[in-house]
Design goal:
Strand order of the largest sheet: 1-2-3-4-5-6-7-8
CATH architecture of one domain: Beta Barrel
Number of strands: 8
CATH topology of one domain: Lipocalin
Number of helices: 1
Helix content: under 10%
Length: about 120
């Protein structure tokens, strides 16, 4: 009995016996990295606002914009940061290299230089 093994090397989708469009792989990567979708109203990008209560008793408010590329406007104590979506193993991580908001299953880690705090999503009012 003879067995023939086939494999698909997704790192090189244009080579081999099975060919995969690079566009479909890029689209799938964007979908996996994006925060949960909300319905867009008209031509403007949909925005989802979430309030987190942190362990130090203060709030972080994040507005997640479904733009290309995805980003979040994060506010705390009167300061604002526009944070682009970054790769993460789980959850959604938004960071500009100095400030990071890493959200996963209703819990967020908010980091600024020299300080990090854990926050929990608050019910929407």
């Amino acid at each position: 009995m003879t067995y023939e093994y086939w494999y698909v090397d997704l790192g090189r989708p244009a080579r081999g016996r099975i060919r995969v469009s690079q566009r479909s792989l890029e689209r799938q990567l964007r979908q996996l990295a994006a925060p949960p979708a909300t319905a867009a109203a008209g031509p403007a990008a949909a925005t989802r606002m979430v309030r987190y209560r942190c362990q130090d008793g203060r709030d972080v408010v994040a507005s997640f914009a479904e733009t290309v590329p995805p980003s979040a406007l994060v506010e705390r104590d009167g300061a604002r940061w526009r944070l682009p979506l970054r790769r993460s193993a789980s959850g959604a991580r938004y960071s500009d290299g100095n400030v990071t908001l890493w959200e996963h299953q209703g819990e967020a880690r908010f980091e600024i230089p020299g300080r990090a705090v854990i926050c929990r999503r608050q019910p929407s009012s």
